[in-house]
Amino acid sequence: MHLSLIVPVYKEEGNIPEFIQRIRPLLARTAESYEVIFAMDPCPDRTEEVILAHRAMDDRIKLLKFSRRFGQPMATLAGLEYSCGEAVIVMDVDLQDPPELIVEMVAKWREGYDVVLPQRRQRTGEPWIKKLVSAVGYKVINKIADVRIPPNTGDFRLMSRRVVNELVRLKESHGFLRGMVAVVGFKQCLIPFDRPPRHAGETNYNRFVGSLRIGFNGIFCFSTYALQLSTILGFVIAGGSFLLMGIYLFYKLMGWTILWGNPTLVILVSFLGGIQLISVGILGEYIGRIYEEVRARPRFIVDSAVGFEESDRRPTA
Fold it and tell me: What domains lie within the chain, and their CATH numbers?
């Protein structure tokens, strides 16, 4: 079999040598042939030089360099487009995705699974706020989304060639790989593992904001529930208004004193204003994503592709 390994990188010069040293014997033992595709946004450190130095010793190492920073999701999708393996693995270079799992993942693929998902049992080194956001986010997404995304899984996964071909056909611009793989479907399995801490350097990923962005993509790109919730809130508030009107009318007819004052007015106006802003915000999230899709800009632009022939790139249509 031919195995493709896709590794998005940005400012990772300290992790690449150890990463390559650990994956080489595993890939040689697992596959008859392989390629390691580093998908790199332009960065100020020596990441590119380190990759090219290793490529000089092993031409199975390849490099995609983009014209500007497009982000990890788009780098991953670019790697998928340029890959040619019968099975494709996406993983991070910081060694928080243990390379040793490659052997087990390929074994599951040989058993007939099209998607093999390592599932985190422990998340060493992550702050409690990120763990909380992730836990709540997965529960909310799987409650309302049109597809089910296994909790505590990231982009680290193995996919068969037919899954990759279907992913490349999708034209969605958000790059939320977890959701896109769930949309494609096919036979999947989970491999539990304990996630180790980062090998070297600091993460380039904002743990809190990044988790929220991923969560919003899961909610707004794979479900219309938020729009339905906004409509339901509107009906509930309208019903409450009619009920309140009935109560005041009853008080008036009975000649009772209506308890009304500035605090009550302020509370009601603030509440209604908040609901309106939330509803507008929900609409804005959907409209913004529609705008991104309609513009149909390229999801990435490759500046240089080192180690690839023109025929290596698969059609996106």
Answer: 2-128+155-205+298-312 (3.90.550.10)
